[in-house]
Amino acid sequence: MKLMKxxxxxxxxxxxxxxxxxxxxxxILFSIGLPVLYKLFxxxxxxxxxxxxxxxxxxxxxIIKNPSTNDDKIFNELLNEKISIIDYAISKKEQSTSFKNxxxxxxxxxxxxxxxxDKLINNEKINTKNxxxxxxxxxxxxxxxxxxxxxxxxxxxEKQALELKNTIDKxxxxxxxxxxxxxxxxxxxxxxxxxxxxxELINLNITDENDFRAKEAxxxxxxxxxxxxxxxxxxxxxxxxxxxxxxxxxxITKEKNKEIxxxxxxxxxxxxxxxxxxxxxxxxxxxxITNNITIISIVIVVIAGGIVANEFxxxxxxxxxxxxxxxxxxxxxxxxxVISLTIIFGVITYIMSFITCSISFGFKELLANDLSVIGxxxxxxxxxxxxxSSLFIQLIPIIFxxxxxxxxxxxxxxxxxxVGLSIFVLMGSSLAMMVLLMxxxxxxxxxxxxxxxxxxxxxxxxxxxxxxxxMYQIYYTLPKALLVLGIWGIILYTISNxxxxxxxxxx
Length: 507
Hints:
By secondary structure, the protein is an all-alpha fold. The chain is built from 21 helices and two strands. A two-stranded antiparallel ribbon has the order 1-2. The longest helix has about 35 residues, at about 325-360. It is elongated, with a radius of gyration of 32 Å.
């Protein structure tokens, strides 16, 4: 009971300080303001035209005013055709999207190629090499075509131009999907899977590339491209800088491919059940939690770095030790207060961010369930539960770095030194780890450096974590991270306790 009372009193002491109130206000402002900024700018649905007047002016300025050669005249003719297409896009107020960009690029290429073919059919002497360089075409091979073949090729392109023009007029996204299928080789297993996916989108009558199901399909295609083939042990051993055993490499690669397969299953579930589980509100809240963690880290380091040192600097430590409480209880109460304040900061900022995100994007988006994979079965899970667990996972290294500041504060009695060194370690941990890896330090995974950012252990970032294993050539899991930080924490706290209980406190 006495320890709890000491902890409570210490929390009250810290809460009443101006620094605490200012820090809390800043965090609340960030938690309220960031969702609004994300809504206004990151997810404002701002679109940009494919072409505008500046694009048109650029090409108009390229026109040769006094063409002296046939090449100059052809150049102007091609430019004028391109400008007419730009005019048409401007008149339709076409917005830049993958679908529309591809459509207009292909339409322009076909129309310009028809002009070149026309010249060749009429036996005009032209420099196709220059034309291809100027307009990014592939017409050089036409020079070797017989006239009859040129006429036939022109008819094919004219038919293609008409089809593209109709697609532009009808805004036919289905055409784009069919076009992608035609361009696939169908040779590899991945190509076959992607073709089946695109056919499924066509069957579902998805006519807008901004439809979330089209976006999920793009995710699936990216996932297929991320999957890795496991190389043989002989090939693996030939590679340089492989500190991981072949068995570990196989395990990591299988884990990554399994995680990718799970993500593919979730995206397929979303497409087939018309269920939007991933949205801007969730993405915003996840990013704000990560941003707030950085700010909380700095605030808590400042509190932990001064919680003992300030007592010595102000001389109030004498008032503490003359009380009938043992020194180890006084020290422990201060550290428990730091942990409590870390959780308080985290919970308050989460609640404020959640409320603001809900207001900005709508409660429905944040209340929408997530998807998880159990075995091969996709199930709906609570996003609120997963986001709260994500928050508390990311608070763990803050408590450890706070313990480091607490340790320095106890043994040095200097707030500035404790805070400065702790922030230096916090901000420079990644660089320090890279230096140790370059120097081939053998026990990097037994230091605390790889574990000062638990965002990597959030399920959403598992693929990134698995990629980091291969990049850094070290393998660790969340239980190992907790164990290593726990051992280092016990060592630091034990030293702090011994120093504090044995320290001679002068009058």
